[in-house]
Amino acid sequence: MKKVTAGFGLCILLLITSTTSAQDSTQTELNMKALSGNPGSTHLLLSGVTWFGLQANLSDTVKTNVKNTFNDFGFSPMFLWKLSDKVFFESEIEIKNDGSAENGAAFDLEFAKLSYTANDYLTIGAGKMLSPFGAYNEKWEPNHIERFPNAPLRPDDNILPDDSHLFWGAIMGIDARGKIPMGSSKLTYVIYISNGPTLSKDANDRPTGVIQYENWNDNNNNKEIGGRIGLLPFSNNCLEVGFSYKHGIANSLTDTLFNQNREVSNYNIGATALAYDLNFVKSVPDLKSIIGIRGQYSSLKVDQANYYLNDSATYTFDNNLTSYFAQFSFRPAMVENCFFKNLEFLIRFNSVTPPKDALWGGKATTRLDIGLDYWLSWRTGLRLAYEMTSNPDGSKTNMIIARLATGL
Amino acid sequence: MKRIIVIIALIFAAITATTIFNGCAVPASIASKSGAQLWAENCLRCHNSPPPNDYSDGEWAAIGAHMKLRTNTMTDTEINKVVEFLQSAN
């Protein structure tokens, strides 16, 4: 708890120091005015995304299985309020088919975040927010922005026994973000403090070693600390590279865990994740095209612990996981032909490697996605993909996926 | 203990950096970029570039605030220029 208080205290100190160094009293008066809300200064946008899609499994040879289905639909209204030049609120609700809901749709509050901008170098945000870890989650994930009909391969795609939200999803906490000009380059930062990860439990309520994020209540008093630093080396911002880090204690106060085969109280299992991301988008007049390269490499390392194998025996394993994707896109947006200029060609390679020796682990799953989009407008596109998955047991699964998604 | 040191180091690094760069002038070539140029350079990176006439003036104001946070790369002056450009061209 002390650490959390220290973290909060330091965030406030950061806010005060940087605002006071940046602002004179005139600026402060302006801020007060902005906060008090001048008439007509509130701007609201009701936006969001909706999508509909289907998938066909080309590898399934079992006659009695359903091989193609319309299984993908959803609607996410998003509410944006600019309350003043300094205060902004964003929230999104997602209503979608997650395969489990009885009435065909599950309802989720994706994020609800209030931000206060002190100056160009510091904005403080609080609430349920998209995790700033990596670039995919906050910047490329929404269905009208993701160019493929689905997300890159993730540990939750039936690779781990439980949903983990390891490298994406939302966090509940506070963040501070800003940018720092460095000549013609820019450095950006986000740091956050949030509820930490937890250890997934088996049927007997014993930790399995699978780490789960997205916790709306924490299971211990230790909070997760994380952040991302981004560098945009060129003045036209066409390239951004990022490095992210997060660390939290995952076991709950009541978990029975073992170290060196002895039950140890106060034994903390830390989960540390790193990510590297890259985004490069450039118009190339010679090719009359826009090319895009993007990718993210993420890894998770969990401290050593012994877990129950059965009622009387324990076992341990190197609890490390890696996941990455790399994508190339090519859109001949500057050609004359009005059909070709709306096409976009895509290729993406994905890989997830779970802990080799875990009961639930094993070899890597890889997937190669080949995609073709037809853009009806900047925010509406029909996406098609042929996806070839190599499973850990050596088998292959080939799918065709289609999705029509539009921003609202 | 280690974590506290890391947090303190990070926060001090951010404070030092913000203090140093608060007074730092943006190079003239970048400061003089027009709203249209900033829009062309910055609004294509994550998604297709939105055209001005898709939203009203008030909506662009809200979008500007939203995108300033999502991109985390544009200064107030830069995003205001883009919003003014979009509002004037819609």
Describe the protein's architecture and organization.
The complex is a heterodimer of chains A (408) and B (90). Chain A is mainly beta and 408 residues long. Chain A has helices at 2-22, 25-36, 136-140; strands at 43-57, 68-82, 87-96, 106-119, 122-130, 170-182, 185-194, 198-201, 207-212, 224-232, 239-249, 258-259, 262-263, 270-284, 289-302, 306-308, 314-316, 320-331, 343-353, 365-375, 380-390, 396-407. Chain A is 9% helix and 52% strand. A 16-stranded antiparallel beta barrel of chain A has the order 1-2-3-4-5-6-7-10-11-14-15-18-19-20-21-22. A two-stranded antiparallel ribbon of chain A has the order 8-9. A two-stranded antiparallel ribbon of chain A has the order 12-13. In chain A, a hairpin with a 4-residue loop joins β2 and β3 (87-96). Chain A is globular. Chain A starts with a helix and ends with a strand. The model of chain A is unreliable at 11-24 (pLDDT under 50). Chain B has helices at 2-22, 28-31, 35-42, 57-71, 76-89. The model of chain B has no long low-confidence stretch (mean pLDDT 84). The chains are: A mainly beta (408), B mainly alpha (90).
CATH topology of chain A: Porin
- Average pLDDT score of chain B: 84
Major sheet of chain B: none
**Low-confidence runs of at least 5 consecutive residues of chain B:** none
Helix content of chain A: under 10%
Largest sheet of chain A: 16 strands, antiparallel, barrel
Strand segment tally of chain B: 0
